[in-house]
Amino acid sequence: MLAWIKSLLTLFSSSRKEIAESSPPTAWQPEWTEFLLAKVAFYRVLHAEDRLLFNQRVLLFLSTTAIEGGQLVVSDNDRLLVAASAIIPVWGFKQWHYFNLKTVYLLPAAFNENIEFGRPDSLITGMVGTGRMANKLVLSRSALYLGFENTQDKQNVGIHEFVHLIDMMDGECDGYPERLKAHSFSIPWFELVGEKIEAIHARKSNIREYGATNRAEFFAVASEYFFERPKMLKKKHPRLFEKLEKFYQQDILQIEQDLQPKRNAPCPCGSAKKYKRCCLPTS
């Protein structure tokens, strides 16, 4: 942990000038809306009033959370994707504030435990700080963007790491967010988690293997699945879907339905063909 802290401080102390030159605007910019519509599916299906609320929550998040870059200049687009990652899982909680987060550090690529990228062991794409690094989050910028570009792989590192922060709001990263649900809900939840982790180990689950690391990682991985592929999650894991829906208090299936193009609408791939003649799934 000490090496991790030293590496992080060294990396970001060398970027003070870039950080100062890339401070975020204090008011909503029209191009921000265009970017979110293009990149964030969740934002794209919100009604006009809810988009305005989302915008306000983005500004609030950016006003209370520093976003700094290591060997990169942080752009407004970077800030928007970090903020979207934070807001999506707590959209059902209008007064939510991450009081356990002060700074998000962005790195150009995946990194190792010493915050080094470009090394053979640079495989980490997100990490929540603890101890002396509490209230800090490190993200790979390339992985952050990929999480929003690919909405079918059940992975989004931004959402994953913010789910850990939600989990830790009660002081523990144990895979049970007491801030979202009463403690009495924990026993059946942990029983279900145990079953699902056993199924992953037995290779009888389509929940990705990293979810079997521990209960905290299972909660984060299952949450990624919930926000990216809710219809599939409900079909494959109905009890898990039901409990996550109660946690997050979001009608996420309606959001996915709104994302689905109509059969006779132009295909979103840009082919100029009708959706039913192009990319409509056949099964």
From TrEMBL:
CDD domains: Peptidase_M90_mtfA. One of its GO terms (cellular component) is cytosol. PANTHER family: MTFA PEPTIDASE, PROTEIN MTFA. It comes from the Bacteria. SUPFAM superfamilies: Metalloproteases ('zincins'), catalytic domain, Sec-C motif. It comes from Brumicola blandensis. It holds the Pfam family Peptidase_M90. One of its GO terms (molecular function) is metallopeptidase activity. Transmembrane segments: none annotated. This is Zinc-dependent peptidase.
